[in-house]
Amino acid sequence: MNFADQVCKVVEMKGPLVVGMDPHLELLPPYLLEKWLRERGNNLQALAYCVMEFGELVIEAIHDIVGFVKFQMAFYELLGVPGLMVLKNLVDRAREKGLTVILDGKRNDIASTAACYARAYLSGIEYPLERSIPSFWDVDALTVNPYFGEDGLTPFFEEAKKVNKGLFVVCRTTNPSAPFLQDEGREEKVYFKVARLVERMGEKMIGDSGFSSAGIVVGATYPEDLRMLRAEFPSLLFLIPGVGAQGGGLETLRFAFRDDGMGALVNVSRGVLFAYRESGKLDGRGFERLVRTKSIDYQERFRELQR
Ligand SMILES: O=C(O)c1cc(=O)[nH]c(=O)n1[C@@H]1O[C@H](COP(=O)(O)O)[C@@H](O)[C@H]1O
Q1: Is pLDDT at 303 greater than 80 in this prediction?
Q2: Is the CB of 174 inside a 6 Å radius of any atom of ligand 1?
Q3: What is the mean pLDDT of residues 154-160?
Q4: 106 CB contacts (<8 Å, ≥6 apart)?
Q5: Can you list the positions of beta strands (E) in the chain?
Q6: What is the rounded end-to-end Cα distance, in angstroms, of the chain?
Q7: DSSP at 142
Q8: What is the mean pLDDT of residues 246-260?
Q9: ipTM beyond 0.90?
């Protein structure tokens, strides 16, 4: 069973929701932030402890009803080395709890450097005398940037295939100025070309589900593009951000799924993590119960769309 088959199995069991582990500092529950700043002072370590406890509570609250989490690395990099240690701890915790972990790093570079990223996050280090060290991060899938083209992408495909992991290549992004570059192109728009490239490069990564372990990121904020991409690329898994805080609607996501309800993972970060802010409980105590309620609610709404 390859990564894509595993994804389908988890979607069938739990649903397509991906909880985005994006600890926006200004949105963290005030009670938690105050607690750690009081205990540890005004420094990165205190913030890292706070983010750690926040993440642990989220994982505990959702692990039996959600199949996937996506950690956006920027929020952890912001806290320096303490933040990266927290990221590592939370990745491990999530995997121990049976969650499939997507690391959102949007990495890439020239091939020789890209190979380093691919080994770091996916396959680990092989060095002379036939020795090897497994990947420190050891996540299930990584987001990748396509701007370097085929040779930049190749190491990610090779390493992912070697260790049966997944890739999500950024294709149609959610942001307002996405069309400025992505809609360029004479015969075919750039984002379509990206999808075509990923489809071709991932041909040998197709599993029994008919999906490739190399998928694409497609924003919910461009529903018409989502529909066209699904029609044209039946073997690509879509990772879909943009629902909730960025205004992406749910109804149009219907087009993202194949007839059997497979093919799309839908990420919601702020819309799930910070649901307490809509509840009037301003100090955020018990926020994790609302994280759980909101996640159940999304899974149910997605189930409707999958029919
Ligand atoms: O690759 C991504 O996940 C991504 C691509 C994109 O086009 N737009 C986008 O919002 N994302 C990520 O998806 C998450 C969306 O967060 P919310 O808007 O809070 O749900 C963030 O982690 C973004 O970095």
Answers
A1: yes
A2: yes
A3: 98
A4: 143, 144, 145, 170
A5: 17-20, 68-72, 100-107, 125-127, 131-133, 141-144, 166-172, 214-218, 238-240, 264-268
A6: 25
A7: E
A8: 92
A9: yes
CA–CA dist 154, 159 (Å, integer): 9
Q: Is 162 in the active site?
A: no
pLDDT above 80 (res 307): no
Report the DSSP beta bridge partners of residue 167.
142, 214
147 pLDDT more than 90: yes
Whole-angstrom distance, CA of residue 73 vs CA of residue 283: 26
| pLDDT digit string, tens, across residues 36-50 | 999 999 999 999 999
CATH superfamily placement of domain 3-306: Aldolase class I (3.20.20.70)
Q: Is the dihedral of CA 254, 259, 261, 267 positive or negative?
A: negative
**What are the Cα distances from residue 90, in Å, to 60, 97, 110, 144, 265?**
11, 10, 30, 21, 21
Q: Whose CA is nearest to atom 3 of ligand 1?
A: 241
Query: From CA 177, how far away is CA 235, in angstroms rounded?
Result: 28
Out of 26, 198, 217, mutate this one to test ligand 1's pocket (max ligand atoms within 8 Å of CB): namely 217
* Max CA pair span of the chain: 61
Domain ranges of the chain: 3-306
Percent of the chain past pLDDT 70, that is, above it, reads 100
